[in-house]
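Reviewer has doubts. Consider these tokens.
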Amino acid sequence: MNKGHTPLGYRIQNGIAVVCKEEVRQIKQIYKGYLSGMSYMDAAEQVGLHMNHGSVKRLLQNRHYLGDEFYPAIIDREMFDAAEQERRRRSTRLGRDHKKKTFSDKIIIPKEFTMGKAKKRIAEPFAQAEYLYSLIEVREV
């Protein structure tokens, strides 16, 4: 059963997803425009759809268009994969293909640390914390 938003290109009639021919034509033209070198938004604009960058990207990555147990296929695997390959190529060219970092990639966990003895007490809590943190000495082992 369909849950959530019905993707562009489909209508639900009597509980069944059916294709909307005009929207399917627009979707296919967006894929073709993008693969010919157009930006996401320009590819959508050329077919009369005013969508933001992220919406067009999600449209091009929508696996329902390949067909599944509920939605009929409207894009073939070759075009779908070509669009994803082009997206990755452009992302790499623009320096946006950073690997997602895990928590452990972002910080260095010291093997050993020491803290000097606090010699003063500051009434203001944030200043006291700043003072105490300044007493921490980190040593990589």
The two ends are 57 Å apart (CA to CA). The CA atoms of residues 64 and 71 lie 6 Å apart. The chain has two domains: 10-93, 103-139. Helices lie at 21-35, 40-45, 53-60, 77-93, 103-106, 125-134.
